Amino acid sequence: MLITILVSAGVVAAVGLILGALIGFTAKKFEVQTDPKIEAVQELLPGANCGGCGYAGCADFASAIVTKGADPSGCSACSDAMLAKIAEVTGKAAGKKEKMTAVVFCSGSFSRSARAADYNGILDCRSASIVAGGGGKACRFGCLGYGSCARACPFGAIEIRDGLAVVHPELCRACGKCVNVCPRKLIRLVPASAPIHVYCNSLEKPAKRRKFCKNPCLACKKCIRTDENHMQMQAGLVRVNYSNPPEASFVEQVKCPTGALQVEEIHRKIAALKPVEPAPKAAPAPKKEESK
Amino acid sequence: MDTNEILVLTVGAILVNNVVLSRILGICPFLGVSKRIETALGMSGAVIFVMTLASFVTALFNRFLVTQTFTINGTEVDLSFTRILLFIVVIAALVQIVEILLKKFSPSLYVSLGIYLPLITTNCAVLGAAELNADASRGLISSTVFGFSTGVGFGLALLLFASIRERLAIARIPKAMEGTAIALVTAGILAMAFMGFSGLVK
Question: Considering the entire predicted model, what is its pTM?
Answer without folding.
Answer: 0.60
